[in-house]
Amino acid sequence: MKRVLKISLLVVMMQTAWAQETPKWQGKFEQLDQQLPTPNEYRSGSGAPGPKYWQQKADYVISVELNDDNQSISGSETITYHNNSPDVLRYLWLQLDQNKLAEGNMTQKTRGGTLRDSIDAKSAGSTYNLFDFDGGFKIKAVRDVAGKDLPYLINYTMMRIDLPQPLNPGQKYSFSIDWGYNINDGVRVRERTQFEYFPEDGNYSYVIAQWFPRMCVYDDYEGWQNKQFLGQGEFALPFGDYKVKITVPADHIVGATGQLKNPEGVLSKAQLDRFTKAKSSFDKPVIIATQEEAVQREKTKVKEKKTWEFHADNVRDFAFATSRKFIWDAQAVKIGSKTPLAMSFYPKEGNPLWEKESTRAVKNALEVYSRMTIDYPYPVAISVHAAHQGMEYPMICFNYGRPAKDGSYTPAIRKGMVGVIVHEVGHNFFPMIINNDERQTTWMDEGVNTFVQLVTEIERYPDIDFDRGKPAALVPYMKGDQSSMRPLMVNSEQVIQFGNEQYAKAGTGLFMLRETIMGRELFDKAFKEYAQRWAFKHPKPADFFRTMEDASAVDLDWFWKGWFYTTDVVDQSIDQVKWFKMRTSETDPETKNLKVKQGDLNAKGGDKKFDSFNNGPEPFSLTTTDPRMYGEFRSQIDDKAVMQKLQNKNIYEVTLSNKGGLVMPVIIQWTYKDGSKEIERIPAEIWRLNETKVTKVFVKEKEVASIVIDPLQEITDVNAQDNVFPKVQSSKFDEFKKKNN
């Protein structure tokens, strides 16, 4: 009868072994369910919309005129509000975003600040509100369809309209508002909407947004989303259909949300022909309004007016840009069964960079985002050049990136310009289509978009080193002062490091999920499922978290809890590595021929300092197993075969610590004495029984020269120096990294 191995220390080591000390359990792998809203008939436990999901709709008919003489807006709108909820509504809430610039606004009242011994006049004017500017909406009338005044109350950036009678489920209500406001000069009061004055030719360029009273969201999650607009948290808006007429000087070129409905009435014959040609130009842009034409318009400055009409269906907002300085180009893009136009509007001050790069960047963004989410559904996607801008609206965005006066530009200018266009065009998908609440959970907008932006940049711009969203680029922030950090799951107005967190940290988290934790195939399927489920709807964080797990079969609760709900950091370390080789028994007739070569063993045994591999391996023995180990089993294993599996193998017991609090996968790079390398990836669940320390045994054919964890900087580890064994002196660490990367 064969005797079976009595697996002593070796077998324990060959499984995952845990440190002797047991730290306080922090529940990092406890399920997130109890912290998320309870699933219901509106939002299911899978993360999909429930069978009774509903959302409101708001349709707009707007007429607006821009006054180029005094830089002001005047307009009137009729809103038809559809109550698709199961609730009876007695009042409506609208957003008055321009009131952020009104006298006595809450943003200015609540803004902190300090004095320095020296400050430039421009900064002082903006910081201390020293510029004379009469901002904010001037509401002229609020009436029902019969022309009767409706009672309303303005609370900073919110306006409540009391209804003459309750609006029941399934009903709709129409009312009108007349308003006006002064447009801010971007060089004095920088906002998402502004004008720029060009003293060289005496003309203006306008990017107009948040320009009309807009309905707030009313949803199943919190009722009215009427949190004040303080400037950092952006917008939550319902979908609807828009019909907009924009009256501007007759020599202006207008770009706007939606489809131009009267091109024959506002374009010259030559421009109309070029516009038609652009609709089938897939290889390169067609210039519809040329630079030569723009320069001529700058000189003439006609006083006549024209009205441009645009229609947009199923959008959550509307914005436009207008100037006599605009050059306009367009190119058709093949997206599924549709051919939207990628378009750019820019003054001559943007060339040659904008003619070369802008529409190409729009096209690249549409193609990659469509692959990752849903096919772009709208007829146009527009990039408008505006100084120091980076802001998005449905089908149109405003972007910075201006060459020097002589037309030259640096690689950094090109990088910034391409990056901001891809990012802002990408916002068409997040949040303009997958319509999350930016004011409450900014990361669902900025962070998710930053991630897909990085995927686009890596694929389409290999010549540019884009880094926002890559783990290594986030490390300086992660190593920073915890007192200025906020978890991602906080309201946007409480965030101190807005760009580092809501953009970069959130984007980096998704990048790590795709590249390191889930893998591209699983992540992409789950991410696309989320986009398809929530396109033209209002998702919440729980819907995203649940969908990503539902569609991938990957338990990510540990990741959501650590990365989104805390400010913990990643700091893994290699504490100790022990090297072993098997020693055979001289007295066992079945193993006497399986001797390890003399010299491979440390015959003396005993205590050893495990700080390098210089002392050689420690011996260990496999002995035959007492038959009682088999209990009721009648069969036994082949002792000799097991021993042969370990003959001449190098066995390494590695002890790792998690010092930073965030659990992450362990990525180990083995460098062997023959110079070859191997990367081994261990899921984060290795920390599930002990969240701070773990010991694991690895069996290797070759002798190891060094071990590095997170060799490719994939998990934002804040201290790479303790990721190395044998330890490397601080003065030589940079040289070691360079050699091993």
TrEMBL record:
<protein>
    <recommendedName>
        <fullName>Peptidase M1 membrane alanine aminopeptidase domain-containing protein</fullName>
    </recommendedName>
</protein>
<dbReference type="Pfam" id="PF01433">
    <property type="entry name" value="Peptidase_M1"/>
</dbReference>
<keyword id="KW-0732">Signal</keyword>
<dbReference type="GO" id="GO:0008237">
    <property type="term" value="F:metallopeptidase activity"/>
</dbReference>
<feature type="domain" description="Peptidase M1 membrane alanine aminopeptidase">
    <location>
        <begin position="372"/>
        <end position="563"/>
    </location>
</feature>
<dbReference type="InterPro" id="IPR014782">
    <property type="entry name" value="Peptidase_M1_dom"/>
</dbReference>
<feature type="signal peptide">
    <location>
        <begin position="1"/>
        <end position="19"/>
    </location>
</feature>
<dbReference type="GO" id="GO:0008270">
    <property type="term" value="F:zinc ion binding"/>
</dbReference>
<dbReference type="InterPro" id="IPR027268">
    <property type="entry name" value="Peptidase_M4/M1_CTD_sf"/>
</dbReference>
